[in-house]
Amino acid sequence: MEKIELFVQCMMRIYTMSLSELRRLDLNLLIVLRAVLQTRNVTLAAQKLNMSQPAVSRAIGRLRIVFEDQLFIKGAGGVLATPRAEALADSITKLLHDIDDLLGAQEFSAKTSDRIFRIATTDYGAIALLPSLATVFAAEAPNAGIEVLPFSQEAFRRASNGDVDIVLYSDEPVPDDLQRARLFGETYISFVREGHSLQDRLNNGRLDLDAFLDYPHILVSVFGGRTGEMDDRLAALGRTRRIAMWLPYFATAAVITAKTDFVLTFPERAARELASAHRLISFRPPLEIEGFGYQMLWHARTQSDAGSLWLRQQLIAISRS
Q1: What is the C-alpha separation between 257 and 30, in angstroms, rounded?
Q2: Domain extents for the chain?
Q3: Labelling 165: which of 34, 116, 240, 250 has CA 20 to 30 A away?
Q4: Could you report the per-residue pLDDT of 230-243, keeping only the tens digit for each?
Q5: According to CATH, what is the number of the domain 2-103?
Q6: Rounded CA separation 80/77 (Å)
Q7: Taking a C-beta distance cutoff of 8 angstroms, is the pair 181, 294 a contact?
Q8: 116-186+293-319 and 188-290: same fold?
Q9: Which of 63, 119, 160 is nearest to 318 (CA)?
Q10: What are phi and psi for residue 73, nearest 5 degrees?
């Protein structure tokens, strides 16, 4: 009971110190106190800390003033701790351990973390990357989660504010305060439903331009717009296609293509995930369409965050598989 009371008194002493007293109690003094408590020998403590014995003795002298106690007295083969010093031992060890955690590199354990990661993306990014990422989470981070937020221009601001861990976006210009890493380069591929009459006109996985333009098309435009790069390429040749439907969603476009005679052209990585599920037949478009790069973005404030770093590493690994 007496030891418990002493412990409480010591803790109260630390918490009620004046600002001038706290200024005298630097971390180096606490490190010396811990070393002497561990070794019960001033000489051994000095060796442990790579300090001179007089320097350790001076530090003990300063600690005696701060804690208003002798702390250590000479004993056989070393020093004996006073009850006040003994009561401080566990608190000092814990305090220094917490400070090490605070100042040291943050650790992240995927196996045990229950962190919810927030990713802003269009449905293209969700289709192209999230199925594989979900598999990684199930195997390596079973208690963690992924919250997907719809992409908008607000996503950049939310990343800057720390509300979003990762933004998945094309290689278009983005705010300068965001860090970025290229994930992959993307190409385009075209689709029709299984059983479409165009299947019989395919030649080595390609259609001629006239056949391609015989049927109406779906245009997926995330940010709106009545034409796309395909239309620009056709215009250069003096040709046009009939667009029957404009959509901002790739997944919805795939479902509609599976139920109509529409032709759909969209990025190949998303196509891999959707084609077999909706029994779509793929072929190379008759015109070369310039692809695009895809990247992930994050704010500098999370550059060294261990959890965010782990997430970025998983996305890079998935992109290269």
Answers
A1: 70
A2: 2-103, 116-186+293-319, 188-290
A3: 250
A4: 999 999 999 999 99
A5: 1.10.10.10
A6: 10
A7: no
A8: yes
A9: 119
A10: -130, 155
| SS3 assignment, position 107 | coil
DSSP helix/strand/coil, 219: strand
Half-sphere exposure of 44 (CA within 13 A, CB side): 11
Three-state DSSP class for residue 192: strand
Distance in angstroms (rounded) separating the CA atoms of residues 68 and 59? 14
**Tell me: domain 188-290, CATH 2.60.120.10, correct?**
no
Q: What are the pLDDT digits (tens) for 82-106? A: 999 898 888 888 777 777 666 655 6
Token pair listed for 93:
């060890």
Distance CA 22, CA 28 (A): 13
**Is the domain defined by 116-186+293-319 classed in CATH 3.40.190.10?**
yes
Residue whose C-alpha is closest to residue 180's, from 68, 315, 56, 271? 315
Please give the structure tokens belonging to residue 225.
Answer: 């717009």
Q: Return the SS3 of 226.
A: coil
Which residues fall within 8 angstroms of residue 194, CB to CB, at 6 or more apart? 258, 279, 280, 281
Locate all alpha helices (DSSP H) within the chain, ordered by sequence.
2-15, 19-24, 27-39, 42-49, 53-67, 83-103, 123-140, 154-161, 209-213, 229-236, 250-259, 268-275, 306-319
pTM of the model: 0.67
pLDDT tens-digit readout, 241-285: 999 999 999 999 999 999 999 999 999 999 888 998 999 999 999
